Amino acid sequence: MRSVLLYMMLRIPRANPVLYTFRKCSTDTAKTNSSDTSRIFPEESTINRKPASLSTPHVAKKENLFLKLEQLESVPETEALRKSLSFDEVPGPKYLKYLSKFWSFFPVMGTQVTASTVQYLLSAGKVYGNHLSWGNNAQFFRKMLDHYGPVVRLHGPFGGDVVILSKPEHVAAVFESEGRYPVRSCLDCLEKYRVQYRRFRRVGPFLMYGLEWENLRKAIAGSLQTLTEYQFELIDKTTDEFITRILRIRNKQDEVPSYFGNEINKWALECMCCITLNKRLGFLDSCGLSNTSEPARMLESLNNATNAIRRCESGIHLWKFFNTPAWNSLVKHCDQLGLILNKYIYKIQDSLHQKKINNEILSSEKTSLVESLFLRDGLLPEDILTIILDMVLIGVNTVSHSIAFLLYNLARNPRAQAKLYKEVVDKHDLLLKDHSLPFSYLQACIKESLRLNPPMPILSRVLSKDTLVHNYRLPRGTYVLIDTHISSMREEYFEDAHRFKPERWFEEAANFHENNYVTMPFGFGQKSCIARVVAETQIALIMIKIIEKFRVEYHYGELTSTNRPLAAPDHSLKFTFVDRI
Ligand code: HEM
Q1: Does the interface ipTM go beyond 0.95?
Q2: Which atom in ligand 1 lies closest to the alpha carbon of residue 535?
Q3: What is the Å distance from ligand 1's center to 173 Cα?
Q4: Over the stretch 255-277, which tens digit does the pLDDT of each residue have?
Q5: CB under 6 Å to ligand 1: residues?
Q6: In this structure, what are the phi and psi dihedrals at residue 183, rounded to the nearest 5 degrees?
Q7: What confidence score (pLDDT) does residue 343 get?
Q8: Which of 110, 148, 226, 357 is positioned for an S-S bond with 160, CB 3.0–4.6 A?
Q9: Distance from the CA of 532 to the center of ligand 1, in angstroms?
C-alpha cells in the first residue's frame, strides 16, 4: 500500500500529444518573436526565466500555503487572543474528526482537499451518517451553520481543516486581519496545468500572491478602471446584435429557446474580447456559428474548461497522480482556448512593434488591455495570456449569470420592471450623449439581483495570522470559507430579504449594508473583483437595451442557483420578450 502511494505521489505527469503540439507551437512562436520582444521591451531580455521543472512532483498545497504565509509579518499576541477558546472547541461534524485521524498519513493531501470535498458535497451531493444527510445539497452551508452554530469546523478527512462562516461580524474579523497580500484558496488543477505542464512562469492573477501579484494587479486594474469610449462603442454594437438575435430566435409566442443562456454567454465572451483585445470576433453573427468557426470553438472550450476545472477540484484530486478524464479535458480545452487567444496576443505584439518602427503615437482611447500590458515592463506574452485566460474564465460566466438572474427578477416583478422602463426611456438621451450611465434605479436593480443571486457566493481566504472569531482562536493558516449569500439573505439586515426590492438601496441603511460585510457579490479588499466597474457597466448596457425594446416575462416556476463554485441558473432560460408598443 505504502509503495503504491509513494509511486502515485512521485509519478511525473506525462505530456500528451495535444499538449506537446501546443507547447511546441508556443515556444516556436516565442522564439520567432523573441527578437521582436527585445526590440519593443529591451528590459525583458534581463528577465531571468526559470521554468518549473516537469520532473518536479506536484508540491503539496499545504506546504505552498505555508510558504506564502511565511512572507507575512507575524502579529503580537493580544489579551483577547490569550483569553479565547481554543481551535479544538470549534464545533463541527464529529465523524470527519475520526476520519481525519485515520487519513492523516496522507502527506500529499491538504486543506485544499478538505475544501474540495466540501465543494463536491455542494455540487454533487453526498450522504454521510446521520448528521450530514442533507436532502438538498444546495442548502449545505445553511444546514451546517443551523446545526453547529455560526462558526463550523470541518476536520478534513485527508488532513487540513476548513472553517465555515457567514455572520458579517465574523467575516469582518477575517477581512480586517487580512494583510497586504491576502491568500485565497488555489485552483490546484489550474496551477498544475500552467506551472508544470505549460511551464508558465506565472500562474495568473486569480491564483497569485505577494508582491508579484500586487504589481500585476496594479497593471491590470489601471486599464480596467472604466471602459474606454472605443470599447464602449464595440460593446454597444455587440449588444445591438444581441437584440437582433433575440428577434431572430424567439418563437411566435415571443419565447426564446432553451439555449438562450448560451446566447448570453456569446455576448459576454464577445464583450470580453472587446475589453481585452479591442476586437469583435463575431460570436453573434446573424447567420449563427458553424461548429468549426473560431468563436464556436472558443465558446466550446470555455464551457468545457470551466466544467473540467470544477470536476478536477471536486472530491479527491486523483489527477495529481494520473491523467483522469477531467484532467485530460482540462488540458485539451485550456490548450484550445490558449491557442486562439495567443494568436491575437501575438498579432497585437506585432502591430505594436510595427507602430514603434513607424514612430506612431498610440491613442490612449484605442489602446486595448493587451496592448497596455505589453507596454509595461517585464511582461511576456505568456504572462498576458494567463491574465486574459483568468479574466475569461471568471468574467464571462459571472456576467452572464448575473444578467440571467436580473432578467428573471425583473420578469417576476413587473412593477419594478415598469419603473426601470420609465427610467430608461426618460434618460435615453443622456446615454447617447456622453456614454455615461446615470441610471440610479437600474443600479439598484443590479445590486438587488446580485444580493439575491451572487454568481460567486462563496469567498475563501487562508488566515495570515491567528484570528479571533466568535471568541474562538482560529490559527494562522486556517482555510476559511465565507458564505456571503447567507448573510445577504438575513432578515436582520434586509426586510423581506427574499423579495426583489431595488428600492431598499435608496434607503439610508443601504450604505451600512454595503460597507459592513453584509453583502459582497464582488468580494472584499485587496483581492476583490478587479473588474467590478466594467462588469456593472456591461450589465447596465445590455439591460437598458433589452428593457427599452421588450417587456420580459418568465413562465417556468422558480429559477434558483446551482450551488457550484460559480452559481449558475438551474433551469433553462426560456424568457418571453414581448415587443414594447
Ligand atoms: C457580475 C460580474 C462579476 C462578479 C459578481 C465577480 C465577482 C468576483 C469575486 C467574488 C471575486 C473574488 C473576490 C474575493 O475573493 O474577495 C472576483 C475576483 C476576480 N474577478 Fe470578478 N466578478 C465579476 C466579473 C468579472 C469580470 C467581467 C472580470 C474580467 C474582466 C473579472 C475578473 C476578476 C479577477 C481577475 C479576479 C481576481 C482578482 C484577484 O485575485 O486579484 N470579474 N470576482
Answers
A1: yes
A2: 27
A3: 22
A4: 999 999 999 999 999 999 999 99
A5: 184, 205-206, 217, 275, 390-391, 394-395, 398-399, 402, 455-456, 459, 521-524, 527-531, 534-535
A6: -115, 125
A7: 96
A8: 110
A9: 7
